[in-house]
Design brief:
It comes from Plectus sambesii. The protein is mainly alpha-helical and 165 residues long. Helix content is 41%, strand content 9%. A three-stranded antiparallel beta sheet has the order 1-2-3, with no helix packed on it.
Length: 165
Amino acid sequence: MSIMPEECVPILRIKFNAPFGDITVDLNANNSVAIKNTHLLCYYSSFDWRVRPLVTAVKEWAKRRGINDANRSSFTSYSLVLMTIHYLQCGASPPVLPSLQKMYSRRFGLRADVRSLNVALPLDPPPESVWSFENKMTLGELLVGFLEYYAFKFEYVYTLLLIDF
């Protein structure tokens, strides 16, 4: 366990070893933006069953390639999650994920009070007229699509990576 006071918001980093499989968790408090984003990411991961395993596969791929270590000026796990969600919204065709902030503006809007967030409350399924689950790609196809998107299609010079939060 270590405290990282150099961060803008104090972070407590906890490392779990076996039997948990070497997991590192960063905890912070009183950071309303991070709390809202975590809440939103939780719902994105539950919106389509492929989101969580795809994020896990991307993070494992990056770890094995040596590019998932912020201490070595590479991607953080959080940035890989955001890249995956961006791909699922903007790179996959048809998109796998919608903008939950647009679809559920009361729950995820800018004015949502952090104290009222409750991930135990399920989202009502969207009406077909608003969102239809058209993407039938397999998890493997989505992983290959993610790699192709960032290797060949994403225009790094002209494009800012945005998540439709």
